[in-house]
Here is the input.
Amino acid sequence: MMSKEIKSSIIILLVSVMTIIMLPSKYEVIVAVLASITAASIGYLLKSIIVDFNLLKLIFSIYFKRTGFIRFSISYLYRIENKGKFLLVRSNRIKDYFQPVGGAYKYFENASEKFNKWNIRKDDKIKVDDKSDGDLRLQVPKKNVLKFLHWYRKAENREISCNREFYEELIQDDILSKENFPYVQYRKIKERTTGLQYSKYFKCWEILIFDIVEPVLNDAQKKEIEELYKKGNSENHIWADAQMIESEGHNLNAKEHEYRFGTQTKYII
Here is the structure.
């Protein structure tokens, strides 16, 4: 189904082209403006077609899988780097795992009406408790995947801030101080989507989406991060370079597997 934005761009493009053709040559300024609008519309259309094509390709691949539901997990991860190493924290669920600061976005109660209508249910692959209740880890009927993705992109009735997990994993656990980090500013640097994949662990088809963000630090915050780096690793956090993350915790210098990392850790590099 063609989006409203694409339809509007096509109309603007057609009107601009027809006006340029019909206008006398003496209206050079108007022609120039319309030509710019036409170029911008073509650029937007090309980008939209690529995005929509990738989405259609995804939906097409889903419909040919012999499954009724697709598991979605949608999260944000912090890329906190100092001197070529990345800050990882101990997992709350798997005690011997380290992973980036972050976690699943939450959906709000107002979303439940649509979820019930679309037969979307809570993910049954991970135990739902007080901390994980409301996570955007869901089982979505494959016939409603497109509706769900449109809902997610519109950011309606769901968490859009990445502050909660930063506070819980770094401030609440006393890795960083509340004095220097009463809040954290951050910027999104990329989105990583796995596409449709089969989870050997959960024995189901799934799509994982990660927003990768990095903190925008003031001078006091930079200083504290530097001091944390100098202290080295602890029971609850470590600093790992890209090589160790890519080799999933194997230390090439020590020639041994030193740590175990969550599978999502590689996406912050």
